From TrEMBL:
Pfam families: Pkinase. It comes from Tripterygium wilfordii. The keyword GTP-binding does not apply. PANTHER family: OS01G0253100 PROTEIN (PTHR27001), OS11G0664100 PROTEIN (PTHR27001:SF931). GO terms for cellular component: plasma membrane. Keywords: ATP-binding, Nucleotide-binding. Residues 15-283 form the Protein kinase domain. This is Protein kinase domain-containing protein. It comes from the Eukaryota. GO terms for molecular function: ATP binding; protein kinase activity.
């Protein structure tokens, strides 16, 4: 991403109409109090990071070209103890919130295909997202998805720990390796796909998390009964039996052992092919 340097004075002018996120968002900028958000329309989002974390994130983000499915950070401002990243403000809801709505198959497929495209772009830059989940993706009224949560992104091969990624979106094998790999994102994306096609907000059926998310057990039960895991309501709203089986198979492949998982590019290609089928059929 190409960052424009934003002067401190310009940043202060943006603050009254900005959504502040991250570390120290309620603190001060160089000892100047951040004004409270006014009643005016929010125009930008400003991510607040400590200097060390901010410079690391800038290093990774600068390697990403603008992509339609990844939030664009357009400006940066560095002070003595903070880094501020400025992006467009998206007044949309997360895909997690929309899972409770009466969705069509086209809407669901458009979201998962778009997220796959964003992931493929991240992986092509030699980076790993490390926190793909429905809460990390916002969707607009046309169900165009945008990956917005990039705070755990890191370089492929970097040593990591289990403290970062959300529980339920990584396998025990990934934890034991302790090294950031695109295959870890693919496991998380497999869970993401299952949540989308099964219309499940939760990956666990109890309040106590376990190593293997319960949603995988639910998938196996559904496949035994119907040959796929797609929710019956989506079957009545545009999903054919063949597409249900294909997308379920993609999700299943993503949650296999590390070496058996497909790449994000392979998954993107497969999902976009299925989306094209809907366009041809005018579904």
């Amino acid at each position: 991403m190409a960052f424009r340097d934003v002067a401190l004075e310009e940043l202060l002018k943006l603050l009254p109409n900005a959504l502040l996120m991250g570390q120290g968002a309620s603190d001060s900028i160089d000892d100047r109090a951040i004004p409270a958000n006014s009643s005016q329309i929010t125009t930008v989002a400003i991510r607040v990071l400590d200097r060390e974390s901010g410079h690391a994130e800038l290093q990774w983000l600068s390697r990403l070209e603008n992509h339609p499915n990844i939030i664009p950070f357009t400006g940066r401002c560095t002070t003595r103890d903070r880094v501020y990243l400025v992006s467009e403000y998206f007044n949309n809801v997360t895909f997690y919130d929309r899972l409770t709505e009466d969705l069509t198959w086209r809407q669901v497929l458009r979201v998962i295909a778009g997220v796959a495209s964003g992931l493929a772009h991240i992986h092509a830059a030699g980076l790993v997202h490390r926190d793909i989940k429905p809460q990390s993706v916002i969707v607009n009224q046309d169900f165009h998805p945008t990956i917005v949560d990039l705070n755990l992104i890191c370089q492929e091969g970097e040593i990591t720990d289990v403290q970062g990624p959300t529980y339920g979106y990584f396998s025990k094998e990934d934890v034991n390796e302790g090294i950031a790999k695109p295959s870890q994102d693919m496991y998380a994306f497999g869970i993401f796909i299952l949540q989308a096609v099964m219309r499940r907000q939760q990956v666990f059926s109890t309040q106590t998390p376990v190593v293997v998310p319960h949603i995988l057990d639910s998938m196996q039960t559904a496949m035994t009964k119907r040959g796929h895991a797609v929710d019956e309501r989506l079957m009545m709203r545009g999903c054919s039996p063949s597409q249900a089986k294909k997308v379920t198979t993609v999700a299943l492949q993503c949650v296999q052992v590390v070496n058996a998982r497909p790449t994000s590019t392979q998954v993107e290609k497969e999902l976009k092919k299925e989306l094209k089928v809907l366009t041809i059929l005018h579904v």
